Amino acid sequence: MRICLVTAFPPSTQRINEYGLHLAIQAREQHAQLVVLADQIEPRQPELDGFDVRRCWTFNSLATPFRILSAARQLKPDVVWFNLVYSTFGDQPLAAFLGLCTPLLLRLGGFRTHVTLHHLMENVELRHADIRFPGLYLKAGSLATRVLLKAHKVSVLLEPYRGALMERYGTSNINVRRHGILGARAEPPNFSQRQAEFRVLAFGKFGRYKRLEVMLDAWPEVRKQVPKAKLVIAGQDHPNRAGYMAGLAKQHQHDPSIEFLGYLPEEKIAEVFRRCNVAVLPYSSSGGPSGVAHQAVQFGLPLVGSTIGDIVNVCTEEGLAIDYFRTDDAADLAEKIMALARDPERERRMAEQNYAAALAMTMPKIVEQYLDDFREYNSHGPAAAVTDVSRAPLEPYAALPEDKKAAA
Question: What topology does CATH give the domain 2-181+363-407?
Answer without folding.
Answer: Rossmann fold (3.40.50)
